[in-house]
Amino acid sequence: xxxxxxxLYKWKFFDQIGYKPRxxxxxxxxxxxxxxxxxxxxxxxxxxxxxAAMEVAATYNEPDYHCWxxxxxxALGAKEFGYIYQAHLQAGxxxxxxxxxxxxxxxxxRIEYPWGWWVEVKSAERPHLLLAEELDELILAEAPRxxxxxxxxxxxxxxxxxxxxxxxxATPRGNNWVQKEFWIAAQKEWEGKPN
Length: 195
Description:
By secondary structure, this protein is α/β, with parallel strands linked by helices. 33% of the residues lie in helices and 19% in strands. It has a seven-stranded mixed β-sheet, sandwiched between helices. Strands 8-9 form a two-stranded antiparallel sheet.
């Protein structure tokens, strides 16, 4: 079930775990209250993955809430998952989980709570397994490294029914499908013409 309005408790959760967002991360958190596609284009090591993971971590008390972290490999999705895992551990909520698995090598990374909230890492190496779920959040880890067709063929429909949010984090360099779908598409004008 998608959030019907921006959740106001996330800042209390951030305070509880001692997370102090950088300027770019504050923009990400603001955008997540109003938009479904939150492109975060910034230099390496500026906290793109951490900011997206904190948005997901703060939703832990939402009933029937589903999130995938999709990465080119399981190992590349482990970073965002690890941030969520650590945040829940630090907040003291991980002990309430009905399922906790953190095996990056074996591809088994999932946290699930009895009230229906869960987050799971999926690998784009197995696109045939990117089916059959409706999602409220989708983190595209290392988004430019994902195959271009995976967004429309496998992932777009996963978030549509629940009007879920997507976080495609990337550096601003390079002409790739993420830039085209999430950055250029969001511009009111492109190359001097209405977009």
